[in-house]
Amino acid sequence: MQAKTSSSNYKQLEQKSKYTNIFLRWFLYFVLILFASYFIFPLYVMVVTSLKTMEEIRQGTLLTWPSGLNFDAWAVAWGGRGYGAGDTFLKPYFWNSLKMVIPAVFFSTFIGAMTGYVLTKWRFKGDSWVFLFLLFGCFIPFQAILLPMARTLGALGISNSIIGLVLVHTVYGIPFTTLFFRNYYVSIPTELVKAARIDGAGFFKIFFKILLPISAPIIVVTVIWQFTQIWNDFLFGSTFSFGKAAPIQVALNNMVLSSTSVKEYNVDMASAIIAGIPTLIVYVLAGKYFIRGLTSGAVKG
Amino acid sequence: MKTLKIEELSKNFGTTEVLKKINLEIDEGNFLVLLGPSGCGKSTLLNIIAGLETINEGNVYIDDYNVSKVEPKDRNIAMVFQSYALYPSMNVKENMVFGLKQAKTSKEKIEEQLTKVSSFLQVDELLNRKPSQLSGGQRQRVAIGRALVREPRIFLFDEPLSNLDAKLRVEMRREIKKLHQKLKTTVVYVTHDQTEAMSLGTKIAIMNHGVIQQNESPEIIYNKPSNTFVADFIGSPSMNLIKGKLNESSDKISFTAEGANFDIPINSYDFNNTSELNNKEVYFGIRPEHIYFKKSNEGDFEVNLRADLSEYIGHEQIMTFDLANQELLAKFPSTIKIELNKETKLYFDLTQVSLFDSITQERL
Questions:
Q1: Is the Cβ of B46 closer than 8 Å to some Cβ of chain A?
Q2: N or C: which end of chain B has fewer CB within 10 A?
Q3: Whole-angstrom Cα distance, residue A147 to residue A151?
Q4: Contact residues, B window 75-134, toward A, CB-based 8 Å cutoff
Q5: What integer is the mean pLDDT of A224-248?
Q6: pTM over the 0.95 mark
Q7: Longest C-alpha distance within chain B, in Å?
């Protein structure tokens, strides 16, 4: 037989669990704030430094607040100082990157959607092998294909051009985009396609009218992924382009490393932020779909 | 002219044979149910009729026209799917007219068909809703509507009720039955649910391992199953199959269960083939509902058996008896009290028995 716990005993236990809970809650906040500051700290330093003058930077510490909102460094980073040779600034390269990233994201997403559609809804002999080989594409290190790709671009006559970079990024994006779309479409009942076939819709009509309209979540995921990858890419940009055709990350590198006399930390920081802003915008605009699209795929009903 | 005829049809997926030499015919206005356990090939057969699967051998005819290589949309069929397969991005109206639009039907005709069908199925209130805003029953109705607007020669249903909950399933079953009574179109309906098959079909084709076991009216399937598979598959609980031997002496045939000390006379049985019945190893089949607790007909066979188990299920109870170490199930009203572990008088309705060859499993 078990002894009855008296009611005062219960009271004590209740008190104890209350204190434990309060303690755990505060500990949780402490850890969260600690990690949040750890991640926000570099950004803080960048923003603060970009708003300082060189004078302030030399005199203060990393953390010192700037004396005022001084956007001179930003202007220099974006538009240069206005003298001729050796003046590298981001503006033309920013447009280069946009001209590269928009078509590359569009084509890789579109082709990935198509491939995913075929691999799930129009199964054919050996389709799982095709998918497997495509998956290998995700694991090949970029460095391994630099030389063959350079030869290919040369043979096609599009080396050192935006078009060349668009091609490289599109081809390299296809394994990832296909993976995304395949996994999404696999959860959509094939009966939809059957119904549409009986209704008389063909291959493309089914894709554009039935599947694409319900693919918004995965399109967002793919676009964010591809945009980030391509915008932030340095290796392909620096290998397959130079001079005027380079994307922004390459220009940023040139700017920061090629300063001859003094290191202008404020300009460097402003440039780095400018180079990072577009991906930030994409994340903020589409971020909530990103999580939703990654976790949920199925269309109910 | 047969509305649908299937001739020597075979289908393999790689090395697995899914359908083996299927022959099937449906007359105009019939409701054919393809019934069988999962993996028996019934859905594949339906997909082949629809043109969604290719054929390895054999032919499919619709109205005497060989459609084996015709595209699904040109076969004059419509299909209702288990998951309804309503296009998620379109509203009810767009869903229903999608097929007609693809077929370049005139605007007036589309409008006319839509009004007719939507009021017939009582979905006219829902026309502007998306499928995600509909209940299961409504989705089902819209899916049927999408099939109806095309005025097909043959309706194909692929387990359309199995996604619904039990209560709604019974309701929708009745609606489909009413629909068929009103429209009198030819229907091919796939299900694994025997109650659905029995209540809806004018003909039931029972399939197993890619072969049609029996294709008859529900009454014949129930009363005269053509083999032990059908006997076992239909009925809940299924038919008792008692192992034993036939004895034939001076024109009298009787059955002795293995290890039993009594003979059951077989008088009124309609044998397919009366030769070599003596000493034949057979299964004696009798349905639980044809075993009574009191004498009902003159010809009933009386026997004392021990009751081992009683399962109460509300309106009735299922009793398990011991027949020479073989289990015998009987269905009684739940008001009857039968003591367990004691011998009880039972009466077999001998007009309702089936006999099967224990080797070939076929009906004798």
A1: no
A2: N
A3: 6
A4: 77-79, 81-89, 98-99, 102-103, 131-132, 134
A5: 90
A6: no
A7: 78
Residues in chain B with CB shorter than 8 Å from the CB of A196 are 87, 98
Distance from CA of B47 to the nearest CA of A (A): 9
Q: Per-residue pLDDT tens for A143-179?
A: 888 999 999 999 999 988 899 999 999 999 999 999 9
User: Alpha-carbon distance B146 to B79, whole Å?
Assistant: 9
Report, in this order, helix, strand and coil percent for chain A, each rounded to 5: 75, 0, 25
Report pLDDT digits (tens) over A116-137.
999 999 989 899 999 999 988 8
CB B51 within 8 Å of CB B72: yes
Which pair of tokens denotes residue A141? 């290190």
Per CB-CB distance under 8 Å, the chain B contacts of A198 are: 50-52, 72-73, 77-79, 99
Which of A121, A127, A193, A199 to substitute to test the interface with B, most B CBs within 10 Å? Answer: A199
Mean pLDDT of A190-196: 93
CA A202 → CA A194, A210, A219, A241, B99, distances in Å? Answer: 11, 11, 22, 42, 12
Residues of A with CB under 8 A from a CB of B: 189, 191-192, 194-201, 205, 209-210, 213-214, 299-301
- Please name which of A72, A98, A77, A100 lies closest in space to residue A88, comparing C-alpha atoms: A77
Across the interface, whether the CB atoms of B87 and A209 are under 8 A apart is answered yes
Task: State residue A292's pLDDT score.
Answer: 67
Residue pointed to by tokens 């509203």: B91
Convert the pLDDT of each residue in B101-133 to its tens digit: 999 999 999 999 999 999 988 888 999 999 988
